[in-house]
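User: My collaborator and I are trying to settle a disagreement about how two of our proteins should look. Neither of us wants to argue from intuition anymore, so we agreed to look at predicted structures for both before our next call. Could you fold the first one, then the second, and keep them clearly separated?

Assistant: That sounds like a sensible way to settle it. I'll keep them separate. The first protein:
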Amino acid sequence: MNSRKTNRIGIAVVEHQRQFLIGVRPAGVALAGFHEFPGGKCQPEESTEACAVRECKEETGLEVIAINELLYEEHSYDHADVKLHFWLCRPAQLPSDLTTCNLQGFHWFPVESLPELQFPEANARLIDLLVSAFSVS
């Protein structure tokens, strides 16, 4: 590890009926064009669980409840060193139809489609975990 700052990241892996809430990173940011789960940098005294819930609300408008931490991953990208805390979350209240509510650019993807999407490198173990845990065999 080098001397640059490491960012603690809380990520909301929001699951509903074997579908996951996923967006695409916008142009002009690191890893632009890659798929992502809602999440972001933790505030100084914020837990990764609280961060995941807060970031999901800010990015998608959807209130979620964190269930448990699925995975912890450390990764060094060219732009930053990150400590990723992936939290399994569920919607706090279900609108009549989750698929039609406005989620600010995020959309529901069935678990089977996750391996076909282009996620950042640090998400590889998470995608494998979700596919094995939520796919119907």
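The second protein, kept apart from the first:
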Amino acid sequence: MTDHLARQQVKARTFHSLHRRGEPLVLVNAWDAVSARIVEEAGAAAVATTSAAVAWSLGTPDGDALDRDSALARTARVVAAVDLPVTADIESGFAADAAGVAETVRGVLAAGAVGINLEDALYGVPAPLRPVEEQAERIAAARGAADAGQVPLFVNARTDVFLRAVGDPRDRLKEALARAEAFLEAGADGIFVPGVTDPGTVSELAAALGAPLNVLAGPGAPTVYELAACGAARVSLGSGVARAAYTLVGRSVREVLTGGTYKELDGALGHEEVNALLEARKP
């Protein structure tokens, strides 16, 4: 076994251990080396990428439009920028079939990440979600590729039943749990249900799942502490921080073009501060 593989295995086991019901892992999602370093310097326990912001920063819309190589290259840069465990958002796997998902996971491992998000959403077709059996096959392929690579990759299986408002609202909890059960049987380690933050539903999901529940949070959602009390084991911000950064760009442009002033830039990190974040990572 190589030293690199041994270190990656330790990071993977550490990442698994951070998922504790009622004491959630908080992930502020990064999209490049600097944002990842900021997350690390702030004291986070791990770094997650956001597929949306990675795609946007590379000039591609979110939703299975980014190519695999570009996504993996960005994952490798994030991993290289920090000492923390990194989990990569790989959308639906950057592949048309299960074998392709396995190939993507091999690339994720080569990049040095120790976790993935794998979603069941479909884009550009009438059906909003991939059939559960097909998605389970893709999760099993991811699990198999990770096991073959000797890394206990944390497979966070995402279902967009609530996010995409699938079917009758009265049936969504049941559908999400049915999908979660199938995904866990296929080899997932955790379940991610974006679009749900109300305490009652979060509590029901957490109580019914035999695995860590990931909740997507943001303005208007309960606090991390309230979500913890509901049983969440992981709370992530998704593309929220990136969208806030892009909002600042828009505000700054409008201010200087219309008023000639620069108040929106007050409090910005200094040039040397940002440089120092990356200088610390030089070999």
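Some points you might bring to the call about the second protein. The two ends are 23 Å apart (CA to CA). The CA atoms of residues 31 and 54 lie 5 Å apart.
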